[in-house]
Amino acid sequence: MCSESSVLNSDATAHDAIAGAVAQGRRLTRGQGRFLLEEAELLDLAGWAAAVRQRLHPGKTVTFVLDANPNYTNICKTDCLFCAFYRKPGDRDAYTLSVEEVLARVGRLRETGMTTVLLQGGHNELLPLEYYLDIVRGITERYPDVTPHCFTASEIRLMAEVSGKSLQKVVQALYEAGQRTLPGGGAEVLSERVRRKIARKKGGPETWLEVHEIAHQAGMRSTATLMYGHVETTEDLLDHFDVIRDLQDRTGGFTAFIPWSFKPGNTPLEKAIPRHATSARYLRMMAVSRLYLDNVDHIQASWFSEGKKTGQIALRFGADDFGGTLLEENVHRAADFVNTSTAAEVAQLIREAGFEPAQRTTLYEIIKKW
């Protein structure tokens, strides 16, 4: 049986090894990642993550983007246990917007200042590939100052399934229509065990990873995400971090990593997981993301999903980006979680946290300092 002193010595050794790796810019091991997730002191994590952030992004600039997340359909066949948004065909409040309706909504949002439209929807088998292509073409032709940051990996897989085309041909068609970036939604936790439990019909981690690798090979950039706080274990989280880091080593296509906590309201998982993940857990995830994903440039603080004050604190735990204004959002709203803001408020929140706000593009190019 281990004595208390031997456990303390082991923790001290792990702490010193991580401190040394951070100082020298060495890659952390899976065992060190486990220590960060389970045992490291929160303030140690903050110090290490802030040091790495400062090395990668010297100064006090924190970026944000003027974006919106409208949805073109809530009809979905996938039955994810964490989702309160989807409806079945024939449900009273099921809907699918026409291409013109989508473009009109983008136009209205553009008038409010939006520069990135993060367009997503359910898995609606009645929509042909041309529907999606017409949306991308319409955005790029009518609103050339708006970036179409559209469609998750699972939506692209559905396009391939419905059209009978390969994933490569679907991604190439989207590229030719004008799409250059892909959102990272739908990853959940990239662990076979977790996806089998909460999103069985989406398939294993490879179904998300393959689409992003193909997109990177086609010249697109994308984000990577993590939705934690449900059925995952530490090992599942490490699986997720490992496959993101490995794919980034191969392609360099990820612009940013964005973790957020699961919101159980109105979902099939609500009774099984009745409580939200804590702010402390979120801050730990932020710091681990910065430390473990050493090849991903940007870590985004999700003020929207975690609350504005927690988002501000996250800027001291390795984040260099404050996300978007989300001028429209419906998925979290369906789970009874609503958080809104404006560009001016986002800039003020960044200032209050001790940083300097800067508006960016989808690809992290600075548009202007606020």
Topology readout:
Layout: H1 4-24, H2 30-38, H3 42-56, E1 61-65, E2 67-68, H4 99-111, E3 116-117, H5 129-142, E4 147-148, H6 153-163, H7 167-177, E5 181-182, H8 192-198, H9 205-217, E6 221-228, H10 234-251, E7 254-261, H11 279-292, E8 298-299, H12 303-306, H13 308-314, E9 321-324, H14 331-334, H15 343-352, E10 356-360, E11 366-369
Parallel strand pairs: 1-9, 1-10, 2-3, 3-4, 5-6, 6-7, 7-8
Antiparallel strand pairs: 10-11
How would you describe this protein?
This protein has a four-stranded mixed β-sheet, with helices on one face. The protein contains 15 helices and eleven strands. It has helices spanning 4-24, 30-38, 42-56, 99-111, 129-142, 153-163, 167-177, 192-198, 205-217, 234-251, 279-292, 303-306, 308-314, 331-334, 343-352, and strands at 61-65, 67-68, 116-117, 147-148, 181-182, 221-228, 254-261, 298-299, 321-324, 356-360, 366-369. Helix 2 (30-38) packs across helix 10 (234-251), helix 3 crosses helix 11 and helix 6 packs across helix 9. 46% of the residues lie in helices and 12% in strands. With 370 residues, it is of the alpha/beta class.
